[in-house]
Amino acid sequence: MIFLELFYTFLKIGLFSFGGGYGMLSVIQGEVVTRHAWITASEFTDIVAVSQMTPGPIGINSATYVGYTAVFNATGNEALAVLGSLTASLAVMLPSIVLMLIVSRFFMKYSKHPAVEAVFKGLRPAVVGLVASAALLLMTEENFGSPTETPLQFWISVALFVAAFVALKFFKVNPILLIALAGLFGGVFYGLI
Fold first, then answer.
1. Among 189, 164, 160, which Cα is nearest to 174's?
2. Is 12 exposed, middle or buried (0-12, 13-18, 19+ CB in 10 A)?
3. From CA 24, how far away is CA 184, in angstroms rounded?
């Protein structure tokens, strides 16, 4: 039964999430942590971190890890958990594959049509909003700490966030380098706490 629920849930996520993997994160969290309670918020945070570090799109990586973790938590069976990861990954990719096959046939012909250009202009703000929502959902007490309970952890997290934002926005530092540096600084600073 969990496989059908996984497939249906990730099919919906793949079908109705815009903005790529980061846009999917808030939807995935809402479904798998809040609605179905397949994984905890802490496990989801770990899954997002691992998904960012592994090759491939973050949305598909997250689906793979969530599928594995959800089935393993439900059954305790690693073989079934692998099947869960395949189920979630296929389900989240299926709408995109079908849509791209359909769109690719017609996009080149109609790409300069005013209606098509208007649709893409309308989607841009929605995509930005979904990515911002994903970032805000990850700014939890589990990730950042609390200004009252763990002030040192909180302010180190805020400083790392601001430094990464400034480096990316104003100095155009490579995002891969930023991830590596944030991991290094986080390991050093959080190791001191």
1. 164
2. middle
3. 27
Token pair recorded at residue 15: 């079908």
- CA–CA distance, 94 with 13 (Å, rounded to integer): 10
DSSP state of 56: S
- The string of pLDDT tens digits covering residues 139-169 is 888 778 888 888 888 888 888 889 988 998 9
Neighbours of 191 (CB within 10 A): 7
Q: Are 19 and 130 in contact (CB under 8 A)?
A: yes
Q: What is the CA radius of gyration of the chain?
A: 19
Identify which of 155, 156, 162 has the alpha carbon closest to the alpha carbon of residue 178. 162
Helix axis angle, 151-170 to 175-192, nearest 10°: 160
Identity at 147, one-letter amino acid code: P
Residue ranges of alpha helices (H) inside 17-170 are: 20-29, 41-53, 58-75, 78-110, 114-138, 141-144, 151-170
